[in-house]
Sequence to fold (800 residues):
Amino acid sequence: MTALPVPGVSVSAVEAGIRYADRSDLVALIFDEGTTAAAVFTRNAFCAAPVIVAREHLLECGLMPRLLLINTGNANAGTGDPGMLVARRCCEEAAVALGLNVNEVLPFSTGVIGEDLPADRIINALPKLFAGRSPDLWEQAARGIMTTDTRPKLGSRQFVVDGTAYVLTGIAKGAGMLRPDMATMLSFLATDAAIAPELLDTLLRRAVETSFHRITVDGDTSTNDAALLAATGVSGKQLCDDPDSELAQVFAVALESLCLELAQGLVRDGEGASKFVEIQVSGGGDEAECLDVAFTIAHSPLVKTALFAGDPNWGRVLAAIGRAGLADLDVTGVRIFINDLIIAENGARAINYVEADVAELMRGEDLRLGIELGRGDALVSVWTSDFSYDYVRINAEYRS
Amino acid sequence: MTALPVPGVSVSAVEAGIRYADRSDLVALIFDEGTTAAAVFTRNAFCAAPVIVAREHLLECGLMPRLLLINTGNANAGTGDPGMLVARRCCEEAAVALGLNVNEVLPFSTGVIGEDLPADRIINALPKLFAGRSPDLWEQAARGIMTTDTRPKLGSRQFVVDGTAYVLTGIAKGAGMLRPDMATMLSFLATDAAIAPELLDTLLRRAVETSFHRITVDGDTSTNDAALLAATGVSGKQLCDDPDSELAQVFAVALESLCLELAQGLVRDGEGASKFVEIQVSGGGDEAECLDVAFTIAHSPLVKTALFAGDPNWGRVLAAIGRAGLADLDVTGVRIFINDLIIAENGARAINYVEADVAELMRGEDLRLGIELGRGDALVSVWTSDFSYDYVRINAEYRS
Fold:
């Protein structure tokens, strides 16, 4: 996994000792002047102090932030008013060090909830953080934002429009509370194209909808989620604000593809995950009901433990579909597939079902569970992992 | 645990060898003529063949069934049209043996989904089943309907109205897919009072609402759930159809109390359960929002693994409250308690929080997690268990 540098972005990662020694835990993404940005944040009512401050600063700076200051080891969530003061203070110190306005600094935190964020450790590390900046440290940044992740997630896309070559690079973290509303999920993306904030916002929201909002590990949603997309404009000839322009369209494809790769990388590295499962629901009346079915299955502990066991337990899948709340579901029209093999139809096991064949298929690490609802043309996929002993171990041991 | 006989009801349980040898797996509850009944069934769209047949027969016999024929080891669910034929055939054979109309026989099944129910084994066991009937075999019946349950659940209440003594006895099973809509949950209750079907239905629904619908192990819902309440009228002086009568009111209290005891017994014996946790949500604007908060917490794998670990991880509780979908939730007004000790308020850890004290409290097997929303007077409790290694083991090994 490599990530290409993005003209107009410099990156740094250092050890600030926020919670653990000997690991990188403080990251900076520094943008050239003129960079535009869009961001989406957690919908959890208990959002963390840095989320509140980042959202506020992003608006105040006219969607043109200059610094993302990201720490792991401590979420600065459930910390009340003192947590707000700490988040603001870190932004102020960083702004002074780089000669920025405080509202050009956006803070992001991930890690344990309910502990005081040690602001002094962050502030003491700022000189080294900013001194070490370089365009080439994206992988170090991807490592510096990890919590229970076992590997960094990063990637790039290149695209050419009108003879100009552009790059899009992104990193992401999060292995636990993932799902729609993107729990404990952080992702930072940057391009050197010049894109107007409003268009950037539209493109980011659309890409998130079909990537980070379609993955789930355990259905929980964190207090700190955020995805931010910056466009430095360094390689842009003129600001693009037309969604129908070639640049917007080519960029949208690159963005959706990179977001999906990063999102799937999060599921593959999900806590205790031993399987990577696409749940593809087709034949729905609309996308909303396909998503209801897909997430009901993806969140069913009984389905997830069966996946862990490699057990082709279509009865549990059928029970999950049956409680997904679809009005007037004709259960005899529903068909269930593992990869391309039909396993259930007409409310029962498929005629040609051979348990040994299906069990063999399920030994694979990558599976597609297909549900054909037989009531329309809508189609969606979501991606999830199984429920293993390790999921329990990690979450019983780790104080997140 | 003991259960009192109910005048007008005889009970039997035998080994029919449906899935396993050397265990009781076929149960009959036989009611005297004139018995009225009410029942609630799963809301899962994929309901099992016996659910469809029982619902149909109950209406056809004018809410006056004579025989409940219950098997464990096989749910006869996900079995399509052949499963319907098998369910009907068992009812027919049982009706002939007892000289009943076929629609006076209600079938119930629990166990593995998607396997053909071996009708012959059931039919061959009917003579012995009916020959062994006795008023005193409620405990054997409670054992005969178990699946992954580790112990039978049964209980009785006695009450006196107008100088007449009455009894109410019930059994229940289900340790896995429990929750609202009552997955893999079966409960059968009978009284010797004389109660009109319509009133019986009202009383049963009300009692279920505050008992079986307020428990959850893993949020899954089965294809086979049912709760049935029969009133033989043997000890009744006249048919009671007045909800304001003393009998109706006294009986309602007994019924709610017994249903709650049985429901809590199911959670205590939940798959892999090491804790029994009451989640009490108070200060809500209405009951519906209290239930949303309570079930969001009760279904959160992160909260459940923290309970298993005995970790006072109020951050995960707070995150669950925050995603429960309450409009305009003032997060600073929310308070979280373990038993009577406050652990979080003002969006942060409580001032006097001492982790060692809370961790000590959480070593108990019975806990109450209290949430005070601070926005109204509504109050509800739901009961749940934790998520343990054993939950994964049981559900990865057991083909339900």
